[in-house]
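Recall the central idea of this unit: under ordinary conditions, the amino acid sequence of a chain determines the structure it adopts. In this exercise we apply that idea directly, starting from the sequence alone.
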Amino acid sequence: MATVIPLGREAVIYYGTADGAAANLIGNARDVTLTMDGATADGTSRGSGGWTDTRLVRKDVSISFSITNETTGTYSAVWGALNTAFLADTPLAFHCKHATGQTGLLGDFLITKFERGEPLGDIQSWNVELKLTLVYRAPSWA
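Accordingly, the structure predicted from this sequence is:
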């Protein structure tokens, strides 16, 4: 059986109300990046046998993507929801999946960056950065 490796264009990202389902497709998303980091602490002691003992003390999750600048038409609801959540400091649920029907990270995020780009040689777009918040729930892989 052949190994299936999803293409970037097959990945999907959804949004919705925080602490709820993220059921609204962000169909105009481009270049989505899901980043999961861990902060470490040095637990080395004399009993470590000469080895550095690294401990994971906390985890951080962020998502970044851009959307095409459509303030009317099909994707205007996406822009409206993101803009409203950013201005009101309100978290939204996001589900970042490998592909339709696949699993991915589900959690509640605050929009920490909402930036419009106007490059001369390309279309206008909004760059969006999200940071995990635990106000309602912990993230899960669903």
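The CA atoms of residues 87 and 111 lie 9 Å apart.
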